[in-house]
Amino acid sequence: MATRLGELLVRESYITPEQLGKACEVQKQHDGPLGAHLVSLGCLTEEALLAYLQKEYRLATVDPLDMDIPEE
């Protein structure tokens, strides 16, 4: 899915092909999700990535800071 996600982000102009290449290199060295590497490299913000995933895959996003969660 990482390559597909990267290709979709390039297609939608969220990132450049060069940014995708760099993030893929880092991912090969350190494992982990491609999106996390794109964010840590400053290629896009976490908010932009979440907005894209929400739109593309019709996923709901929830900010736990906006929720009233009981302590227990």
Annotation keywords:
about 70 residues; mainly alpha; 4 helices
Write up what this structure looks like.
- The protein is mainly alpha-helical and 72 residues long.
- Helix content is 60%, strand content 0%.
- It contains four helices and no strands.
- The relative contact order is 0.14.
- The model has no long low-confidence stretch (mean pLDDT 90).
Report the portion of residues in β strands. under 5%
Which percent range fits the helix content? 55-70%
- Gross morphology is globular
What is the averaged pLDDT score? 90
Which residue ranges are poorly predicted, with pLDDT under 50 across at least 5 consecutive positions?
none
The separation of the N and C termini measures: 36 Å
Q: What order do the helices and strands follow?
A: HHHH
Computed Rg:
14 Å
What is the number of beta strands?
Answer: 0
The class by helix and strand makeup works out as: mainly alpha
Task: State the gist of this model.
With 72 residues, the protein is mainly alpha-helical.
Topology:
Elements lengths: L1 H10 L5 H14 L3 H7 L5 H12 L15
